Amino acid sequence: MSTFATDNHLYIAMINREIIRIKIVQLTYAYYQNGNKNIEAAEKELFFSLSKAYDLYHHLLALIVAVTKESRRRLEVMQTKARREKTAEPSQKFAFNRFALQLENNKQLCEFMETQKHTWADEPEFVGRLYEQIEQSQIYKDYMESAEDNYALDREVWRKLYRVLIQDNEDIDTILEEQSLYWNDDKEVVDTFVLKTIKRFEEKNSATQELLPEYDSEEEKDYARKLFRATILNADDYQRYMSETSHNWDFSRLAYMDVIIMQIAIAEMINFPSIPVSVTINEYVELAKYYSTPRSAGYINGMLDAIARHLSKSGKLVKYIKPEE
User: Fold this and answer.
1) Which tens digits make up the pLDDT trace of 185-228?
2) Cβ neighbours around 302 below 10 Å, total
3) Which of 26, 163, 216, 240 has CB 3.0 to 4.6 Å from 13, enough for a Cys bridge?
4) What is d(CA 297, CA 75) in angstroms, rounded to the nearest whole number?
């Protein structure tokens, strides 16, 4: 999925509108497919799903710690061998990387990991393989050969390693999918937050460095709740707006996911005055590229623009809409 703008909303918190929109698309689709139609239960599922994305954020940070511990374990073996054979001892540079040690001692991460049933310690073979991949990488070799030795370099090498060897790693995807069904679609967007977190770390903060909070305010929770409820409770009205805008439209020929995406987009247009129409349309067009058919994005773009203009003319939408050229 492409990374896209989010209402100029700063990445202060882990759960932002990008993730919320993704989850609402998934949960609205499931709501209709399941046939249960219990909106309270569906809303609980939405917030549980969002909390699992926050869990994944911690879990991926903890992978850096697990690899560092594996590095130290192997270093001890090599040191013992070197002392026995009276040869030069190996470098400790990566095993005692300052950034990784700071993350290992981070109070928030330690508190989180204490609550988890499954950790990377349960995946020793994978962690070992990942460390070997790192050791063979040019990023690692350049780092180890560099005469520089400081915190900034230690932090930067992990940012590079994460981008190259963790961000797009099928083995990690498989493990995460086995651990939680909720993580199947979350990793790509959560990766961006892990990288931002690495960049934000400062040596002076030691173990008290703050990780990203789950939400930056109650406003985001309210946004999620209000958008989801409006989508479900006003579904008939929103689908009527779709029909009124496209008189020759046949619901049966349209991808079901397209209807869902447009329904949510209309809910956002009408119920959130501060979000520009253009932002809403762009966000849901991007989601259509990922969740629906190859032709859906262009169709949804045109339909949402037409629906917004129709709602504006009828007085149901009081927002600025760029005049048609």
Assistant:
1) 789 889 999 999 999 999 999 999 999 999 988 899 999 999 99
2) 14
3) 216
4) 52
